[in-house]
Structures are given as structure tokens and as C-alpha cells.
Amino acid sequence: MLRAARGQQHAQATKRSWNVVVFSVGGMKLAARTEDVGGVSPWTKSIPVPSRTPFVQAMLKRDNQVMPVYDLATRLSRKLQGDPLLCLEVRHLDGPMAICIDADVPCLETVDAAAVRPIIREDVETLGMVTIGDEDVAIVAVQHLGQSMQGAVSS
Amino acid sequence: METVSFLVVRLGVNYVALAAAGVQGVLTQAEAGHEQTVTAAGVTYQPVDLAQRLSVVADLSGLEMRTVLYSNGHSYGAIRVEQVVGLTDVERKDCFPLPPQFQRDERNWFAGMMLIQDHLVLILNPSWVLGESADVVPVSVVQVKQIVAATPAAVGGSC
Questions:
Q1: What pairing do the DSSP bridges indicate for beta strands B76-81 and B43-48?
Q2: Which end of chain A is more exposed for a tag (fewer CB within 10 A), N or C?
Q3: Per residue in A134-144, pLDDT tens?
């Protein structure tokens, strides 16, 4: 469930470019490296799990497997938009993890690695910022989501 | 085929399991009485407010509410639950550890999890339920990984 965008159709992937999936959470455009994304599918009801880990308080069942849900919208203080919402499955270092994203179908983009600017955001772990179209988009370090929250107080 | 027996109970929207070996009895509201502490067969069971400890919303005023008398041999607890779902035998390979993304107190609350009839069932740690082990908050990713590594198997066998 991905659509190719302008840049991706013509881009010759080179070692100096990054392929990213651009998605949105509460209207905020974000990106993730394609190698960190396992897929996009319709969101299904998650199962609440008693937990004190910030933003990890549910699981998603897929066939006979379950994976933790990372509540990125709440972390970014955003309200998810559209219907039906989508599930971005990411390859977290600790295993597959699901993130609920807006109903806007994510698209693929190729960006020049040199155009990725380092940024420090306190609201989410990132690999940097890149301008796509006329928008600045943070590339979320989905492999490391939650790891900077180690010392945080439970939400 | 090695199996483990569990008593599955419901608290709000959550299904949790207690190792059946520790279940000493299941009482109705009328049988348990209105006191928090329950005495049965000469043994006093201290009240365990599991819903409050797990921070889940449970309606303990319904007709299906039961009090589970639970013991590990040295501690005794009376656990009020919204519903007793039933006893089930589970193969060890079908029990899984909590994913490592869960990093806080819940690692001490739950010994693992399993899927039963489409429900995710969290396996309670008896020592924690009976108040023998305090909540331990891992302070680093390394500690969490050590705890996960100490779990019998990453692909099953967490019970």
C-alpha cells in the first residue's frame, strides 16, 4: 500500500541517495528509511496492555503473531486524521513494531543523502531533516523509537 | 508435549492468566462475603487489588465477579476479578515473552503471554501478584535486553 511519487519514478538510486517512505501523523509529514519499514496495511483494533513504558501500551494481532504498538501520535501530541487509519510496520531493533498513521497513503521518495540535515528534536528520535517538495520532513529513526525515553517518567 | 495449566480471568478489557497450580479456590460474591480478607479452610487470604495494581479499569460489581484464592505456598491472596474465563492447558512452546519494547514495571508483572481463542492473554508473575516482588524499573536498554535474554526463549516457552 504505497504509491510512487515524482522523484522516485525518475530517480536512479545511487549510494548517495536515501529511499524513504513519507507518511503523516496528525497531518505532520514524517519519513522513515524504506529498509526500516516492513509494510503498510489497514489499521486494526489494538489490544491494550497494562504497561508503564511510555507510548508502548498496546499490541496488535496479525494472524497468529502479535507486535507492540508505538503510539507516535500521542508522543507528538497529534490527533490522527482520516479513515480508515493505516498501520506502518517498522523494523525496530527490538523486533517488529506497529505505528498507527493517518489515512493518507504513504509515498516513496528518493532523497539526496547530502540534503539530509542533522537536527535535534526532543519530541522524537530522528536521522535528520530533509526538504521534500516545499516541506521540511523529519526522517524518524524508527529503529530506535522509544530509546531516548529510557529515563522519562511513565506517561 | 509439555503443557502448563492456567486459570484465565478477565479484568476490564484485559485477559490475564494465573498458573492453575496456585489456585486454591474460586468464590462467588456471596461465598466470599463483604470483607476484603477471606478466610477459607482455616487459611487467611489477604486482599489483592489486581485491577488497581495493573492500572486497569474493571467493574467488580457484576454478577460474574469472582474471588480467586491464590497461593504459592508461602503467601496467600484473595484476588477479585471481573470474570473467570476458565482453565486452559497450554503447551510451553505457545507461551511467548513480552516483547522487549515493553521496558518498565510490566516486565515484572507478566511472565509472558499467549494467544487463546483470538484473545491476547498475559501470564501473571505469581510472586508479584502476591506482593513478594516489588516493581523493578530497568534503567537502561542494556538491562532490558538482559532481562529479555534471561527469559527462557525468545520464540516460546515463557511459562
A1: parallel
A2: N
A3: 999 999 999 99
